[in-house]
Amino acid sequence: MSRFYRLVVSCPDRVGIVARVSGFIASQGGSITEASQHSDLATGRFFMRYEIQADSVSLDAEGLRQAFGPIADEFEMRWALYDTALRKRVVLMVSRASHCLVDLLYRWTAGELDCDIVGVISNHDDLRRLVQGHDIPFHHVPVSVDTKAAAFDEVERLVDSVSADCVVLARYMQILPPRLCRRYAGRVINIHHSFLPSFAGAKPYHQAYDRGVKLIGATCHYVTDELDEGPIIEQDIHRISHCHDADDLVRFGRDVEKAVLARGLRWHLQDRVLIHGNKTVVFA
Amino acid sequence: MSRFYRLVVSCPDRVGIVARVSGFIASQGGSITEASQHSDLATGRFFMRYEIQADSVSLDAEGLRQAFGPIADEFEMRWALYDTALRKRVVLMVSRASHCLVDLLYRWTAGELDCDIVGVISNHDDLRRLVQGHDIPFHHVPVSVDTKAAAFDEVERLVDSVSADCVVLARYMQILPPRLCRRYAGRVINIHHSFLPSFAGAKPYHQAYDRGVKLIGATCHYVTDELDEGPIIEQDIHRISHCHDADDLVRFGRDVEKAVLARGLRWHLQDRVLIHGNKTVVFA
Amino acid sequence: MSRFYRLVVSCPDRVGIVARVSGFIASQGGSITEASQHSDLATGRFFMRYEIQADSVSLDAEGLRQAFGPIADEFEMRWALYDTALRKRVVLMVSRASHCLVDLLYRWTAGELDCDIVGVISNHDDLRRLVQGHDIPFHHVPVSVDTKAAAFDEVERLVDSVSADCVVLARYMQILPPRLCRRYAGRVINIHHSFLPSFAGAKPYHQAYDRGVKLIGATCHYVTDELDEGPIIEQDIHRISHCHDADDLVRFGRDVEKAVLARGLRWHLQDRVLIHGNKTVVFA
Amino acid sequence: MSRFYRLVVSCPDRVGIVARVSGFIASQGGSITEASQHSDLATGRFFMRYEIQADSVSLDAEGLRQAFGPIADEFEMRWALYDTALRKRVVLMVSRASHCLVDLLYRWTAGELDCDIVGVISNHDDLRRLVQGHDIPFHHVPVSVDTKAAAFDEVERLVDSVSADCVVLARYMQILPPRLCRRYAGRVINIHHSFLPSFAGAKPYHQAYDRGVKLIGATCHYVTDELDEGPIIEQDIHRISHCHDADDLVRFGRDVEKAVLARGLRWHLQDRVLIHGNKTVVFA
């Protein structure tokens, strides 16, 4: 696998940004293999993502960052330069349902998810064997009404102890406390089992069944301290009919959920998702 | 085009319904070309729709109805027997946007919608020429805050004067008064330009844009006196991304709206939609 | 899980079939939970599938079969009556790629596939651990140009030794000999990684890439002795663009393949697929 | 509607292209509203499309072209700079089926297709009224086996007389002679009513019906002198089942055809489609 630098930028839009950034990269000898830009006309903000072959540049990542600093300052950029040699460290959080976990573990072993899965945390012990079979540490952190605060202190400790870059709620049925949502802002990805904003909250398939909708969906989004209200990364749907009962909806839903979560996570790991207020720019 | 009788039934589920109904049809010599059944396990209600070649039966529609009456009574059926020789009479209601109207008129001339379009009512005069070019009467009934009551009296008079079986709100931007919703219950079809229950009410595409969803949708449903809450007949979606502004959403939305409305209306005209509480059984 | 009898019939179409069959079921006290019929107007053939609650009938499966025999004879039916208490016995055949196998094993453990997986045969040893981790016998039967005949004798012996009802080629990259195709006709299901009839034969994703198509697909079909020409059960597609190279097509393809195979197999196991010449009727 | 310049380029890939082009645009004060690039790793070719606000640049289109010339030469570019003030001139060719024509005319009047429709040519007279109702010249050029050569001379004369930039075969059922295909290479767009390369040639829906596929499709492509083999711009599909006869396939097909053609044509008119050998890069 080739090594790349990924330069991800957002800033107020104005003439000359692309020229300045691409000129900088060219001056370093950088070979650009993928380039994406977006001008948001409503807010006047500009977004870009460049993928640069690492071995085409003489500076290392830190050197590039320092050299790029003055340009970033001049254009008031929020920016990051990622080195794909440093794989993101991911913690998965699950409950009892295994479909998203099985899917993510398959994709990870197949090389579709470019990250290190450094641990799985669950409030139940059911999926221990599956996780350990992939040589990944499994942490059972039970959560009850009384122990909630202590449990999430433990979750925080575990996440911090492995220096996780990203936490994935892969059908983790608990709500993260607001403090953690804010502390890990932009780094916690959830899969919600409805086509948000429809059917936020609990038991969305049963809500969908009761309303008699003809499509069910799933939504991958960043977690914020407002439940099911964070920036949406990806959504998809599955067609249903009167033939299907609530159990069928759950079954179809599993397929949509795992597909949507896998796409959203893959894009996040490839630094393709830029948060913009409560929305996302996804350079898919 | 062949002529058919369509027998549409719902009743409490129990052993022997299909045997009794199909036995009755066979005893009349009836050749069944399409048969659909559904048992709703949650409510214990049974639904069926049979399509029978008219010339295979010696009785006429009224004769069949009388012969079938005792069976219907025995099983406590809600039922109807339709004769496709009597085409449904449809009134379209539109405002200024023409996309659904153009689409329905094309499908009607192409033979996809088996009905007579007996009139178009609009609160604006813009689409008069298009309608009259298809030799369909056009009625301009302006609606303002002050004239609303009188306007809808006029709408009611027009609908009744043509003995309409079905009223289609093809992007008619006014809300029907509750009295008409109730009077024409199960006979008024609306296209809402969102994936209900998301974004009910006004300007759904702008709501969708603001929320940052990745799919937009449209919903075809029966009108009830609760706005955007009636039984859903059909829904579909279109994928969007950060590249698309609210105008693009409107443009994509037009395609979804007209497709969803056309499918929903076609099924309604073919007596494929059975209302069941606030849900539908669609034998598509 | 409730126990059902499934009556699956095809016969020349004529008046009274439904009445006769449903009358028979009613006379046995049978409660029908799902009923599907189809009249193929082009060929004059009729197809039906009834699902009957087993405990609503006093006869057992064999008794029902004997009682139904005279009706079947009278209408010249090809028919079968299945008892869901007897789960179908399935052999999976794989090569090195694990995506379909992982997916089927997940669905099987989740209860989505109502069968016994009685063995996995592979021409490579790579997937042994995965299979044995699910407590399923794994058989490594290498195939080379020289050993082909002996290898397929061994495959046949293994399939027969477990009394398999169904063989699934879950990305098994070898071609079954015509003799086995004929012997197991209607019982061998393959997943082909293209939208047949496009790109039959080898390396379909590379063929698709070279042709510059904008959608790739997968096809689940019964195997016949004409390669990639058997009756199609299910197909689906995934959208691609110029951004995607042949490796991306392979990656997207995996998702389509496993979804299409899982749906096709599920329908087969539920006796929803009726073969009709080189086509299928699928009561999905 | 704002006025834009569109710079569309392909050239051998090397370091510094984006820097050079965007530097040039910035030096002219150009405000870039949309930018797309693609590096084809298999062939080492680079593609780009920039949309520039016209009033942000002091030079006019011709001045820009002259200023850009040396850069284009240096990088061996194939390129064009379009001015959206000069709308493309489009000739539609149709036969008897009206669905694509009705759809394109609606989209054109709704402002979705940024072009002048300067004429419609048909080998039948059926659609004259529809066309003339939109104040577009209609030309009836009958084609028979004997008159084919003369007829296509007349077609050529008509296309040339209106200085057409683009010819759209909107279900024109005749095959253009190779000479015209070559003369108008890259400017003639066809809609084929199958998911190519499946079912090339005549009556694709009947071919699809006979093969028993579960999806039908349509393909929008540039016409070359090899029938149904030109570069594909867009494709889509519609799900079908055993319930649908060949007429249903035709009906569903109409919806797919018109959607696919409209998308392909819109992208072409916006200079989003770059031909690359027998494939396309579509900056959609």
From TrEMBL, chains A, B, C, D:
NCBIfam families membership: PRK06027.1, PurU
InterPro entries: ACT-like_dom_sf, ACT_dom, Formyl-FH4-Hydrolase_C, Formyl_transf_N, Formyl_transf_N_sf, PurU, PurU_ACT
SUPFAM superfamilies per record: ACT-like (SSF55021), Formyltransferase (SSF53328)
Name under which the protein is recorded: Formyltetrahydrofolate deformylase
GO terms for MF: formyltetrahydrofolate deformylase activity
Pathway where this protein functions: Purine metabolism; IMP biosynthesis via de novo pathway; formate from 10-formyl-5,6,7,8-tetrahydrofolate: step 1/1
Function as written in the Swiss-Prot or TrEMBL entry: Catalyzes the hydrolysis of 10-formyltetrahydrofolate (formyl-FH4) to formate and tetrahydrofolate (FH4).
Enzymatic reactions: (6R)-10-formyltetrahydrofolate + H2O = (6S)-5,6,7,8-tetrahydrofolate + formate + H(+)
Gene3D superfamilies, alphabetized: 3.30.70.260, Formyl transferase, N-terminal domain (3.40.50.170)
Pfam families for this protein: ACT, Formyl_trans_N
Superkingdom of origin: Bacteria
Annotated organism of origin: Modicisalibacter muralis
